[in-house]
């Protein structure tokens, strides 16, 4: 039987195909593409814009203010949906598309799905050189869009309408693959967007997708059970992959059955609630004394759903050199890092397979040690987050909002000093409620990511709030999605903690023996007369409720008002740039320091850094 056909433009075919793709989430079928974010220009408005207009009821397009922030919002949306749904981003040829590079890198580093449909130069080259086109004299095929090859899991340029039949399913398969998940980029030459092809009708039939669950290899399970069953000091590192696999219940049950302490990565925060007796705290550079103490003494480490980046491993000094690591990960690339014993597969199925561990439990002396360390760490955090303990600080603000928020409110932060302070002090009230973007540690994600997270949250839990923590530096870098949240009626609560510049990098500068220079506004030699930005007035100008508070007590009262409000609220509080930082809980972190210097303090700190290198694992 011959398949009937329908004549469509390239752009129309892409959007019609996306409109027909569904996924089952908790037994409910919904479109796998939740819609998109777009800024139109001459490279995408006439053809792709026309196609998106016809699908506006089922694939809502949110108008962006900046292409980079659109990408951040798309990444946060996918994270809130646990990678089961994604958003598209469309940008015009030239600088519009170039602005997406940073957000594509963020999605790539965090293994998050995002579909980029971007304008490209004319395939025929008849009007060359066109507006915003980069010309490479020896390679006329090379352009801005080729830069996305480094930050995409899937990359294609459509040079004929028929390619859509192969390219779109391949892009979708990549974005829904738990082992290879990440952003997909499709370049759309401006002429090809409007060219037509007789597409088979079957290409646009409804299809329901599933996220693949890869079972672990039986031989690998046997090896892991033997190693773990002989452990005297086992520990579980729980990463963000635990949540993406929907394996929180399995992880909890496994830890409880075998009485194994659990420590969390930054991405894995909110795998366990604060009050779980086996939750020993966050591990690594921005970790806790409790988690780092048991990581250092553990003889077997079961790393579940983590890519073991340097903030988790303390640049590979957080673990004993002779400790054995088991890499349970759906991605083979992550499962074998530092000669780990791999257990490649889905975390839910992998943890179930470890039932072969039988009635093994960790020695009581080890578990008691871990719990005592946790008690000491909690006492420290209670002290440093007390509002009367020193000048205004990140830690105090975090505790105030933590105490007042709903258990299902979502917390969003990124870059700067806040990820460390939130990781250390946020007391998780419910599972999967924390989004600290530290895969790419990207300033500007906070407010844009909050908007994207709120769009997803509104589809799931509309009566809960998305709470954004941001510093003044990130706010100034990217704040226009305050306006977006007001325009789209997707309320945010944004806490702006103003420390007068890039204070956490100033702290790093000082900690390595350097003088304060060009980070805090007061230390910029090119700024003759520093002044404070009126963040309250700025946020109000974008339509938000806004107020400035003087101290944590006033912050609590303002937060209550923001909770009761029906639109975005911005609360501003000054915090100290030097005092109030969390000084405990840090593992070593490798930073490049000058091997030759005329500054004695820098030389002294360089010697300290190099002395700590002796603890570093060298791939074994």
Notes on the structure:
- There is one protein chain.
- The protein has 620 residues and is of the alpha/beta class.
- It folds into 3 domains: 5-209, 3-Layer(aba) Sandwich (Rossmann fold); 218-377, Rossmann fold (3-Layer(aba) Sandwich), CATH 3.40.50.1220; 385-574, Rossmann fold, CATH 3.40.50.970.
- 35% of the residues lie in helices and 18% in strands.
- It is built from 23 helices and 23 strands.
- The strands form 5 sheets. The chain has a 6-stranded parallel beta sheet, with helices on both faces. The protein has a 6-stranded parallel beta sheet with strand order 14-13-12-15-16-17, sandwiched between helices. The chain has a 6-stranded parallel beta sheet with strand order 19-18-20-21-23-22, sandwiched between helices.
- Helix 22 (552-564) links the parallel strand 22 (545-549) and strand 23 (569-574).
- Helix 1 runs parallel beside helix 2 and helix 10 (289-297) runs antiparallel to helix 14 (364-384).
- It is globular and about 70 Å long.
- The chain starts with a strand and ends in an 8-residue tail after the last helix.
């Amino acid at each position: 039987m011959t398949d009937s056909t329908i004549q469509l433009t390239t752009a129309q075919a892409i959007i019609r195909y996306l409109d027909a793709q569904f996924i089952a989430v908790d037994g409910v079928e919904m479109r796998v593409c939740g819609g998109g974010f777009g800024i139109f220009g001459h490279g995408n408005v006439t053809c792709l814009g026309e196609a998106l207009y016809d699908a506006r009821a089922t694939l809502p397009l949110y108008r962006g203010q900046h292409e980079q922030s659109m990408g951040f919002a798309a990444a946060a949306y996918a994270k809130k949906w646990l990678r089961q749904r994604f958003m598209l981003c469309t940008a015009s040829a030239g600088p519009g598309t170039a602005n997406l590079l940073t957000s594509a890198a963020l999605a790539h580093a965090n293994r998050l799905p995002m579909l980029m449909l971007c304008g490209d130069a004319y395939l025929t080259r008849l009007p060359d050189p066109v507006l915003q086109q980069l010309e490479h004299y020896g390679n006329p095929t090379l352009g801005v869009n080729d830069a996305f090859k480094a930050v995409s899991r899937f990359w294609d340029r459509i040079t004929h309408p028929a390619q859509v039949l192969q390219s779109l399913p391949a892009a979708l398969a990549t974005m829904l693959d738990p082992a290879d998940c990440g952003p997909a980029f499709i370049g759309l030459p401006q002429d090809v967007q409007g060219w037509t092809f007789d597409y088979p009708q079957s290409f646009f039939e409804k299809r329901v997708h599933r996220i693949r669950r890869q079972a672990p290899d039986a031989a690998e399970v046997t090896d892991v059970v033997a190693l773990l069953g002989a452990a005297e000091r086992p520990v579980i590192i729980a990463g963000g992959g635990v949540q993406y696999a929907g394996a929180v219940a399995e992880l909890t049950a496994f830890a409880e059955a075998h009485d194994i302490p659990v420590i969390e990565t930054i991405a894995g925060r909110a795998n366990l609630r604060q009050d779980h007796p086996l939750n020993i705290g966050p591990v690594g550079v921005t970790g806790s004394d409790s988690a780092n103490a048991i990581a250092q003494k553990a003889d077997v480490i079961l790393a579940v759903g983590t890519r073991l980046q340097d903030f988790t491993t303390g640049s590979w000094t957080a673990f004993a050199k002779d400790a054995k690591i088991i890499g349970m990960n759906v991605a083979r690339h992550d499962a074998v890092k530092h000669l780990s014993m791999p257990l490649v597969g889905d975390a839910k199925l992998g943890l179930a397979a470890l039932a072969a561990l039988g009635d093994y439990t960790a020695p009581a002396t080890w578990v008691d040690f871990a719990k005592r360390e946790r008690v000491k760490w909690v006492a420290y955090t209670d002290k440093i987050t007390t509002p009367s303990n020193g000048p205004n600080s990140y830690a105090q603000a975090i505790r105030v909002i933590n105490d007042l928020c709903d258990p299902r409110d979502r917390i969003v932060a990124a870059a700067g000093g806040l990820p460390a302070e939130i990781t250390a002090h946020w007391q998780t009230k419910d599972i999967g409620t924390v989004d600290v973007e530290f895969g790419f540690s990207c300033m500007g994600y906070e407010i844009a990511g909050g908007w994207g997270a709120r769009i997803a949250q509104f589809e799931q839990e509309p009566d809960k709030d998305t709470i954004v923590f941001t510093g003044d530096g990130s706010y100034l870098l990217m704040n226009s999605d305050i306006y977006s949240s007001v325009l789209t009626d997707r309320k945010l609560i944004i806490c702006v903690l103003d420390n007068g510049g890039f204070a956490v990098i100033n702290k790093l500068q000082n900690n390595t023996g350097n003088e304060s220079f060009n980070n805090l506004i007061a230390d910029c030699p090119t700024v003759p007369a520093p002044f404070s930005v009126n963040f309250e007035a700025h946020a109000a100008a974008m339509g938000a409720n806004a107020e400035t508070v003087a101290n944590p007590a006033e912050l609590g009262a303002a937060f209550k008002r923001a909770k009761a409000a029906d639109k975005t609220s911005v609360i501003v509080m000054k915090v100290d740039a030097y005092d109030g930082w969390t000084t405990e809980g840090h593992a070593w972190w490798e930073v490049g320091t000058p091997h030759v210097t005329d500054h004695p303090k820098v030389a002294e700190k360089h010697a300290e850094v190099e002395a700590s290198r002796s603890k570093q694992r060298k791939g074994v």
